Amino acid sequence: MRGRPLLYTSYESDQAVMNTGTKRVMLGLFLVVLALVPLAIIPGIGFLAQSDWLRLLSEVAIFAIGALGLNILTGLAGQVSLGHAFFMGVGAYTAAFLGAGPGPFLGLGLPIWIWLPAAGIVAALIGVAIGPTAVRVRGLYLAFVTLGLVFVGEYVFRNWTSLTGGSQSGRTFPRFAVRAWKEEQPIVEFFTDGSWFGIALSGEAKTFYFVTILAVIFVVLAKNLQRSRVGRAFASIRDRDIAAEIMGVNEFRYKLTAFGISSFYAGVSGALFAVFVGRVIPEQWNLFLSVEIIAIILIGGAGVVTGTILGSIFVIVLPRIVEDFTNWTAGVASEGTGLFAWLADFFVSTGLGDFGIVNTQAGVAPGLSIAQFNQVLYGLLIIGFLIFEPLGLYGIWLRIRNYWKGWPFTY
Amino acid sequence: MTSDLVILAQVAPGSNQFTEMFVEGLSLGTIYALLAVGFVIIFKATQVINFAHGAIAALGAFVVASFATILDIPGRWIPGAPAWVGWFGTVILAMLAMALIGMGIERAFLRPMVGEELFAVAIVTLGIDIVIRNITNDFIGQFPRPMGDPFGIQFLQIGPLSFAHTEVLQIVVALIAVGAITMFFRSRMGIAMRATAFDQEAARAQGINVGRVFSISWAIGAILATLAGVFISMFPRRATGVDQATAFFAFRAFPAIIIGGLDSIIGGIVGGLLVGFAESAATVYVTFDFLGSGFAGIVPYLLMLVVLIVRPHGIFGTEEIRRV
After folding, report:
1. Is A361's Cβ below 8 Å from some Cβ in B?
2. Which residues pair with A185 in a beta bridge?
3. Among B113, B123, B322, whose Cβ lies nearest the Cβ of A382?
């Protein structure tokens, strides 16, 4: 590894996940920071240890798992799918059926080491079962098949009330706790305040550790899949399917595999999300969720694992930042004078008759509500990234990195 | 059974479940066909899968609603004109406004994407859909906006079939639209559009202004979407007017497009009618308890899946020739 960078003397070093020392150090640092975040001992980002921020970060990890799945299907194998939300829903309700205790709705009360993998496996099986149709139709028609899947799935979820609880109130899900079998007292649980190894931790912090460790595992799997025989087959199908077939890549089998793996990720992510939220109505698994996941991989950078992680952080944290920003500008607009106050007043509307792009009181003041504004931002970001930076945040990072790498030369 | 028929017969002579289904299916089908034809024209001329079509339809309906009931355009300039003249004027002006908006969308967001992968462009339109839908829904607000049309709840009796006046209008407008499009494709611009649909680069080499063709196709698409949006928001469909769910109505027109074949205008019309009839038949005849609520809403998608399994390119779609 020493010596001239980017000089590879063996196939192994070319294919290494961390092919430079800097990457190794940075990744190590990142993991250490992640581990220390809930302890609030890192200066500058101590606020991340607050329970609402920890919940947001846990959501980032959960969505990252789902987005990695879509990234394998869309970014790597080149199959556009709008149906990711459906597979997430399948995973969630599998988890509920197997994991939730007996109650008003179906539930067997089995432990997490059964329901979490099963959520992925059932979703993967359904993905593989739908696969033959999806393989037969190609390109744009596939997008519409998967779109149909979301609507049909939503209908099934809505009407299967004994499992899903129906649209009124939804149902509850099992919780993050490891049991050997169905005993009362879990071996480890991840949702109440307590202490591990003498360190006091909140329930949010425990959940954060649990889902983050899972996300890291799935990232490693995805990264390794990408540089395996299967990953290369996916990429060849994406780049030119007929050429891939001529080279001996079995298109049918690999497309099915891509669907299966992607659905597995989606199922696990959906189960985690439902458990994390606690109570979910069937309408949760709709087109918006699919679009949100698509936004993650497009904003992050399609086909790149790092990009997917960047995208998850960006898309999940963005609404929170917008909300804080809006409230902050509302404060500026109400008290101050001068140019900034004028701009803030232009941006935010606080009451009836006050003009603004965003309002702080939905339904009363004119302007978009914060939720709507977030949606519009997603839309604009998707458009903007596709037009100006198809590689997404990862592409921006690449350009920054290459600028410093080549400095003072521009090439 | 007989008593049911007697009661129905009192409502409209000769009316039964079948005639109800027929009228409903025809009416739904023409709306889907209007959406589908606009979509197909945009796709053929510009190679863009327009996921924003439903949002454009809702925006068009909202423009009509606000012109008719709030701004009073063009009624304020022609005092004393009969209500229907004002309303048709409103719709025509709204169609022109929407044509400009459609051209603007194409120029701003899709012209930079010319030559990019179809998927990337399709996702851009998904982004446009999100933006337009949210902004439109914010303008619409919590409550439906009435269309301000002068038709009301009146029926026209043709044999055993009982059409609402709006449904008659809808069918007439759809026929006019199809006729106008057929005529258009024989005009100079229409021929240019056909050439562009065939091969963009070759058309350019022949001196056709491809950019203008793109603009015109989006204008046509937006106009047809506006008409569909208006019909979605009137009496038999949704008597109260355009609301936040209108944009989603068009999502049920996507199956129609796929069934007919993405690149066939006739396919769009046939697919639209087929989906309309299937949906209304499901509403009338398929009433098993175990199916729960909302089954008719997914019938188009089920039909689409079946058709795609049998014919992966739709009924009238061109089979894609794949080369290495």
Report:
1. no
2. none
3. B123
